[in-house]
Amino acid sequence: MPFQEKSAWVMSIALLAGGTFYIKSVAAATAALGSLAPPNMPSLLTYTVILIVIAIVGHIVIAAFAPEDANEATDEREKRANERAGHWSGYVLGLGVLLALGLYLFTYDGNVMFYVLFGSLMLSQLVEYALQILLLRTSIF
């Protein structure tokens, strides 16, 4: 398994763990308020710390088990997989932005717009990592 694929797995796990925490914290705050809770800095900072810690620790672990892979240059196949994955994840992000802007036009609720934009950013990154893994495993080009 190439280092790029291992890295994509680590980042997927980090995004899922951080996203799960953030969704739960927003859901709890929303339940307590009785309406959609506004974004708050402590939850965002905790999300960011979770993401950073899992990414750093995960990359240290995968580099420690295969240091020769970690120092290896990206080959042509991996470059193409990264380009394709980034291309398709850009569509997911663009669609999320359009959805958020459209929702804002009808609801004038900045909180909804923030959460849709933030969610589409997370989803687009997850799609990128999932496609990297898929393309590197199947060699579909």
Keywords:
single chain, 141 residues, mainly alpha
Note down, in words, how this protein is organized:
- The protein has 141 residues and is mainly α.
- It has helices at 3-33, 41-65, 67-70, 76-107, 110-138.
- α1 runs antiparallel to α2 (41-65) and α4 runs antiparallel to α5.
- It is flat and about 50 Å long.
- The relative contact order is 0.16.
- The model has no long low-confidence stretch (mean pLDDT 93).
* Rg from Cα: 18 Å
Q: Helix and strand succession?
A: HHHHH
Q: Can you count the beta strands?
A: 0
In percent, how helical is the residue content?
A: over 70%
State the low-pLDDT regions, or none. Answer: none
Alpha-carbon distance between the two ends: 18 Å
Oligomer: single chain
The largest sheet, given as strand count, sense and whether it forms a barrel, is: none
Structure class: mainly alpha
Strand content: under 5%
Mean pLDDT: 93
Tally of helical runs: 5
* Gross geometry: flat
SSE inventory with pairings:
Blueprint lengths: L2 H31 L7 H25 L1 H4 L5 H32 L2 H29 L3
Summarize the structure.
The protein has 141 residues and is mostly helical. The protein is built from 5 helices and no strands.
